[in-house]
Amino acid sequence: xxxxxxxxxxxxxxxxxxxxxxxxxxxxxxxxxxxxxxxxxxxxxxxxxxxxxxxxxxxxxxxxxxxxxxxxxxxxxxxxxxxxxxxxxxxxxxxxxxxxxxxxxxxxxxxxxxxxxxxxxxxxxxxxxxxxxxxxxxxxxxxxxxxxxxxxxxxxxxxxxxxxxxxxxxxxxxxxxxxxxxxxxxxxxxxxxxxxxxxxxxxxxxxxxxxxxxxxxxxxxxxxxxxxxxxxxxxxxxxxxxxxxxxxxxxxxxxxxxxxxxxxxxxxxxxxxxxxxxxxxxxxxxxxxxxxxxxxxxxxxxxxxxxxxxxxxxxxxxxxxxxxxxxxxxxxxxxxxxxxxxxxxxxxxxxxxxxxxxxxxxxxxxxxxxxxxxxxxxxxxxxxxxxxxxxxxxxx
Length: 396
Ligand SMILES: *Cc1c(COP(=O)(O)O)cnc(C)c1O
Known about the structure:
The chain has 396 residues and is an alpha/beta fold. It folds into two domains: 3-241, Type I PLP-dependent aspartate aminotransferase-like (Major domain) (Aspartate Aminotransferase, domain 2, 3-Layer(aba) Sandwich), CATH 3.40.640.10; 245-395, Alpha-Beta Complex (Aspartate Aminotransferase, domain 1). 40% of the residues lie in helices and 14% in strands. The chain is built from 14 helices and twelve strands. The strands form two sheets. A seven-stranded mixed sheet has the order 1-7-6-5-4-2-3, with helices on both faces. Strands 8-9-12-11-10 form a five-stranded mixed sheet. Helix 3 packs across helix 4 and helix 12 (305-312) crosses helix 14 (366-395). The longest helix has 30 residues, at 366-395. It is globular. Bound molecules: pyridoxal-5'-phosphate. Residues 72-74, 97, 99, 140, 144, 169, 171-172, 191, 193-194, 203, 205 line the site of pyridoxal-5'-phosphate. One of its GO terms (molecular function) is cystathionine gamma-lyase activity. Belongs to the trans-sulfuration enzymes family.
């Protein structure tokens, strides 16, 4: 059976009524026949049928024993860190999602959990960072925004040999392209706000566990801390996931075409896209995933904030916004947006130069998106020519 058929038919018909769409069980509690005797649900923080359906569908997609759905991607990450205790150490990918960095640095550090950030594209770097206190390795692959690729299978082997948990933030790839549990990871997290939801209309997160035991532990923290996904947002998430394989296919195809266009454009310096042969992670990405995703980053020959600002305010279909993974194309300028709080020198050293622009390529017609980029570059070229003329007039 193909993944799309399997996915569509993993969405159950309501046994109560035959409803073909998943009902929204908008209820806080469930009537019991006798104290402790119920139909599998007692209180909606602990369990809700709509949320449970979303969790089962996602567990199936990632090949996990179970999944827990949260009110945001960060709440999902938070639940995984609660598996640890004071004194434990984490080894994390160095260009980790900014919100995860803030959670580790500003919240968990004061509880005695420390994080060592390393370049995870090199497995030996991770090996040398392991100490007797290391309990968790945290990967993102591809990373944001330079799309670095780490070898999940190799890192999983290393983690296993040292009795360390491996968690992969699979937000950028989605389970359609990459299944970390199959490659040996113990846990997967998603910001379901992005590709899983897919329509830029909700904030959600998921943790998927390889084993029943880990799934139970995460479920315990989901209920104990309480940042659960609401019934309505669970419905929206299911509604989004129904078309995930189809959407990902178009995101991929569009992004590949756009990356190839960018690579040969005279105003562009570097293009970061794992689907390009020039990308250092290309061969590895080809091996461990079924496609290269919908996110592209690139820098301009004129590496200035001003040039990037002109570009990102000149596109018509690419809307200027944070976030990614929705049907509408988005453009972002990380130095002035998502990575603004990072000191300039540190940001540039991580490859996020002043002119770096990130595209979340949507589902519009490829030709329209190409034309949109072309006209934004034309505007930039006109502005650069005007500046050059002014500068030469001033020096005359
Ligand atoms: C957006 C994002 C998160 C955080 O998810 P929220 O739903 O915004 O809380 C975590 N990891 C990655 C890679 C993301 O892109």
